[in-house]
Design goal:
The structure holds two protein chains of two kinds. Chain A contains 13 helices and ten strands. Chain A is α/β, with parallel strands linked by helices. A five-stranded parallel sheet of chain A has the order 1-2-3-4-5, with helices on one face. A three-stranded antiparallel sheet of chain A has the order 6-7-8, with no helix packed on it. A two-stranded antiparallel ribbon of chain A has the order 9-10. In chain A, strand 9 and strand 10 form a beta hairpin. Chain A is globular, with a radius of gyration of 22 Å. Chain B is mostly helical. The radius of gyration of chain B is 17 Å and the shape is flat. The N and C termini of chain B lie far apart (37 Å). The chains are: A alpha/beta, B mainly alpha. Chains A and B meet through helix 1, strand 1, helix 7, helix 8 and strand 6 of A and helix 1, helix 2 and strand 1 of B. Strand 6 of chain A pairs parallel with strand 1 of chain B.
């Protein structure tokens, strides 16, 4: 991203914050690989953020999503000095991660990544680290993956691989009612819930939180308003970039930081449709009892040529099975066999909870 | 678990969890819940409820027509 684009984007963000009385926002550098900008690039971007936002009383949480292999002490020092946090994409132990995460020559990256993680998790740089993004690989052992990631004692995000009705995910090519991803996630949940009993696996924690009436921490779950927008390196403003997994141009909105403000972008139907709760979902999802938890699933996973995004998630069956399992476990844990609660008349009555 | 079984279990679970009313739960009562993850998540939920009872303007929790995260 050039200095001119960064400056204009930051000015647009400031204008938007001031118009909506926002005093705290998040800016995340994604890629590609954002560490390719190097030290000078990080310094330029954070200089602009300080001058255009922080100096105008807007608190900015700056983060970066990386594959980690380019992390160096030099970059770490810049990130410490400029309060940039970092999350690493890692799919599990080396034998799992190296199946898909390879360099341009097709060589595995785990060995170098483990060296970088050792550096990143050293006392000097560990304040930078926020956790892992892990894409589910059905061929891996979920408990081994979670045990490995948990050994670093940081937040873990499990992500479903991108798929939709035109390109069903691996394991669901012939039967969308199959639940291979729930079958992978449920043992991972049980290991976390029964054995680890600590830490933040955001997919699981969000489901529990919403079962209890709270909110999701996850863009792909719940009915909360989706409030993120993407600024490309050339200044184009787009919808969430994972939409590119559906069809060419799916993320394109036709806006640019030099010609459009973020209020104009926010009024676009593709943005508004993700800020209206269940009203933005298909009739099947609106009528479903778990819609307040799954939120219809992640937007790109709902796509079909025929109905666009007005479908249940291609992972609907997996989400149902996973949520049912987690709900059952939570219920057993929260409700003892008999629980005295006050009824409307103020008298106690016993509620017997059925075995789940 | 088949999708059919999951659906049936889900209906049962949701019905039971919907009966849980956190408006009566206080932080002090959380001592009865032993699981550390649940204890934390319920505490977060109770705090959210308590804070919302003292707020009249909830605009900070919602973002209709605006953005909070820039990528």
């Amino acid at each position: 991203m050039s200095h001119a684009v960064a400056r204009q984007a930051a000015r647009r963000i400031r204008e938007h914050c001031q118009a909506h009385s926002r005093t705290e926002i998040a800016i995340v550098f994604h890629g590609g690989e954002p560490l390719l900008v190097g030290r000078s690039g990080l310094e330029m971007l954070t200089d602009v953020i300080r001058e255009e936002l922080i100096n105008h009383d807007i608190k900015v949480s700056v983060g970066l999503q990386t594959n980690g292999v380019l992390f160096t002490p030099e970059l770490g020092d810049v990130m410490l000095a400029r309060d940039i946090s970092l999350a690493v994409s890692l799919d599990g132990p080396p034998e799992v991660n190296d199946r898909y995460r390879v360099d341009k020559q097709g060589r595995p990256t785990s060995a170098i990544l483990e060296e970088k993680l050792e550096l990143l998790l050293s006392p000097q740089y560990s304040p930078l680290f926020r956790g892992f993004l892990c894409v589910i690989d059905l061929d891996s052992d979920p408990i081994a993956v979670l045990r490995y990631l948990s050994s670093y004692h940081h937040q873990v995000d499990f992500l479903f691989p991108h798929g939709n009705y035109e390109r069903p995910p691996v394991g669901k090519e012939h039967d969308l009612s199959a639940t291979p991803y729930a079958d992978w996630l449920i043992p991972a949940f049980d290991y976390w819930f029964d054995e680890i009993r600590d830490g933040n696996i955001r997919l699981f924690a969000s489901i529990i939180s919403m079962l209890l009436g709270g909110q999701s921490q996850f863009e792909g779950l719940g009915l909360g308003s989706v409030d993120l927008v993407v600024v490309e390196a050339n200044g184009e403003i787009e919808a969430v970039d994972t939409l590119k997994s559906t069809f060419p141009g799916a993320a394109h909105l036709g806006f640019d930081v030099f010609t459009d403000d973020f209020d104009t972008v926010a009024a676009h139907p593709a943005i508004r449709g993700r800020q209206v709760g269940s009203a933005g979902l298909c009739a099947t999802c609106q009528a479903c009892p778990i819609v307040r938890i799954c939120g219809g699933g992640y937007l790109p996973h709902r796509y079909s040529h025929a109905n666009q995004f007005m479908n249940p998630s291609v992972y609907c069956a997996d989400l149902q099975a996973l949520i049912a399992h987690i709900g059952t476990k939570v219920k057993r844990e929260i409700f003892p066999p008999t629980l005295a609660v006050r009824n409307d008349a103020g008298r106690d009555r016993d509620v017997i909870i059925l075995p789940g | 678990m088949s999708a059919e079984n999951a659906g049936a279990t889900l209906q049962q679970v949701m019905g039971q969890l919907d009966e849980l009313d956190f408006s009566d739960v206080t932080l002090g009562q959380l001592g009865d819940i032993k699981h550390p993850v649940l204890k934390k998540l319920i505490a977060d939920r109770v705090r959210l409820l308590e804070s919302s009872q003292h707020e009249t303007d909830h605009s900070s929790h919602f973002s209709h027509g605006s953005f909070n995260s820039f990528i």
